[in-house]
Design goal:
Elements lengths: L3 H5 L15 H13 L3 E5 L3 H6 L11 E3 L5 H14 L6 E7 L1 H5 L2 H9 L5 E6 L36 H6 L5 E6 L3 H12 L5 E6 L3 H4 L6 H10 L6 E4 L3 E4 L9 H5 L10 H21 L2
Helix pairs in contact: 2-8, 4-6
């Protein structure tokens, strides 16, 4: 559990940053930096967080920041960590912060290479399920049935979302985990654990984007909770690519439709499509349970 002292700690994020109201990505960074502490350096790829962080010396983070290009985040993070070690600093955590575009798509090659080499960095994907910083275009993290800028009504994303945790676990990395801002204790525990692990660590954070999802800013925490309670976004961790542990099991699964109906990006779906999505979700949940050790 987070202590009262930690609850008062705002992490490494200053107030007054330019993130949208209700931004799940901004909340995620506030919470995760509480666990990582001040000895953290950020490498930020092209994404919403490029804007939120700003440019030195006027930045929204109380730590060193290095901005980089879309495809190079994991490579740049690897170089920063190796440079710190060369100078005798083995304590500073290098955190690579990337959106789903820079993780699932454009940055996947460098990400896979860094994972294969077991670079000593923490790679965090804040997943708002589209290229939100450039207008809400479809990414391979965009769920089936979503309307986007490149798949407007009556079209929608007609392919399933990539399973990034399984992809990263296949590299045999020391640690991979999912987390959301609705379960702060779970997120804090996972980042605190990752802080003590050496080697490549990967986090997949579901990060609601109110303007991109067509949701209200005050629904971010509720949406994150519904995603978990419906088993659409399970909370679990994987150690050494093999040992799966479920860190939260809903007492009673919520229907997927309860989550979808709060987002205008799904309003064009027909009943038959909603039923098919629920069946696929149930199948995915059962597949995950079979992996739990």
């Amino acid at each position: 559990m987070i202590t009262p002292e930690e609850a008062q700690n705002g992490g490494l994020l200053y107030a007054g940053h330019p993130a949208c109201p209700g931004c799940g990505a901004a909340l995620s960074v506030r919470y995760l930096t509480r666990a990582l502490g001040e000895k953290t350096a950020f490498v930020i790829t092209a994404s919403c967080w490029s804007i939120i962080a700003g440019l030195p010396p006027l930045t929204s983070l109380k730590c060193p920041i290095l901005h980089c290009t879309f495809p190079s985040a994991a490579a740049v993070g690897s170089g920063v960590k190796r440079g710190l070690v060369r100078k005798g600093d083995r304590e500073t955590n290098v955190l690579v912060l990337s959106g789903d575009g820079g993780t699932f798509d454009i940055g996947l090659q460098a990400l896979s290479g860094a994972a294969q080499r077991n670079e000593d960095i923490i790679f965090v994907c804040y997943d708002n399920e589209a290229y939100m910083n450039t207008g809400g275009q479809t990414s391979s993290a965009t769920p089936y049935g979503t309307r986007t800028a490149t798949a407007p009504f009556p079209l929608y994303q007609d392919r399933p979302k990539k399973d990034m945790i399984r992809i990263m676990a296949a590299h045999g990395i020391p640690y991979a985990a999912t987390a959301t801002v609705a379960f702060v204790d779970d997120m804090h525990r996972k980042f605190a654990a990752a802080r003590e692990i050496r080697g490549f660590r990967f986090f997949h954070l579901l990060s609601p984007c109110p303007p991109g999802w067509g949701a209200e800013p005050d629904e971010t925490i509720h949406l994150s909770r519904l995603a978990v309670e419906s088993c659409l976004f399970p909370l679990y961790e994987v150690r050494d690519g093999e040992h799966y542990t479920l860190t939260y099991r809903p007492a009673q699964k919520k229907p997927l439709e309860e989550y979808l109906k709060l987002q205008r990006r799904f309003h064009s779906l027909e009943k038959e499509q909603l039923e098919a999505m629920q069946r696929q979700l149930d199948l995915n949940w059962q597949k995950l349970l079979q992996l739990i050790n």
